[in-house]
Specification:
This protein is an alpha+beta fold. 16% of the residues lie in helices and 35% in strands. The strands form 2 sheets. It has an 8-stranded antiparallel β-sheet with strand order 4-3-10-9-8-7-6-5. Helix 1 runs parallel beside helix 3 (78-93).
Length: 277
């Protein structure tokens, strides 16, 4: 699940005395076995947006709760929601022996990456959003996506303009959605695209091609949200093999209310970039 209220500083201070870890998946059955066992103990049999569990030194569950985290109840004010979340954590920990907190060195923020040293092992996709009434999605989202061999084959240098299917670049396209909106199965009903890869001259001695076209997205969430995007990616080559990509997909995302009515349209930009060669 994208999006989090844990960045509110007092919440982090409440958790500082503990060894804190987390697991994230679209469905409970996708968790590792030990986490699935804890979910079963807590009564989480299917899906859960957020659950907190306190374990003792032997890994036995001491307490658990499903916190109340609903942005509309706090007028989408992250500070107000953070204060209430801290209250819930304090209530969960009430009466437990709390170890003294150690002052830790502030961790250095690092961007996610894909293992591998070969060119185009993977890409980062940066999602940013335009201004909107309730200031949704203020924190950019960054995803690291591996480049499967099928995607590499689809991007081989074209002698002439060549059609590329949506399935060929699906690993990129399926990351282009806003945080915390997956209230269905957690994916897409379909992604369609009309894309063309064509030669585009050289940068110095490096051959280039451009992949561009229109993309249509349909989520599988309750309101079946649909939106369109325009994709444009520059591909650099070593011979005929793609070794670097840089691109952008610009969309307008329809924000809906619980009744499924579109209440606002929010600009969404996905920047796609691999490591420099």
């Amino acid at each position: 699940m994208r999006g989090s209220s844990l960045a509110y500083p007092p919440v982090l201070e409440s958790l500082r005395p503990f060894i804190v870890t987390y697991a994230s998946a679209r469905h409970v059955e996708d968790f590792p076995p030990d986490v699935r066992d804890l979910c079963a103990q807590a009564g989480h049999r299917k899906n859960i947006n957020l659950g907190l569990m306190v374990l003792d030194q032997h890994g036995k569950m001491v307490r658990q709760t499903t916190p109340f985290v609903r942005p509309p109840a706090f007028n989408f004010d992250p500070e107000a929601q953070g204060k209430d979340f801290k209250r819930q954590i304090d209530q969960l920990l009430e009466g437990l022996p709390i170890p003294a907190a150690k002052i830790a060195v502030r961790p250095r923020i690092t961007l996610p990456d894909v293992p591998g040293t070969e060119p185009l092992a993977g890409v980062r996709i940066y999602l940013t959003f335009g201004a909107n009434k309730l200031n949704h999605y203020r924190t950019p989202t960054v995803e690291a996506v591996a480049t499967p061999k099928e995607l590499r084959r689809a991007l081989v240098y074209p002698a002439t303009a060549t059609k590329v299917s949506a399935d060929a670049v699906k690993p990129w396209l399926e990351q282009i959605y806003p945080p915390a909106i997956m209230d269905g199965k957690g994916g897409f009903d379909r992604i369609d695209a009309t894309l063309t890869l064509r030669p585009a001259g050289t940068i110095g001695e490096v051959r280039c091609a451009v992949l561009e076209g229109d993309v249509q997205f349909a989520l599988d969430n309750a309101s079946r949200i649909r939106y369109d995007g325009k994709l444009s990616v520059v591909v650099e080559y070593d011979g005929d093999n793609p070794v670097r990509v840089r691109g952008i997909c610009e969309c307008v995302f329809p924000k809906t209310n619980p009744q499924g009515q579109v209440v606002e349209r929010i600009a969404m930009t996905a920047t796609i970039e691999s490591r420099p060669r």
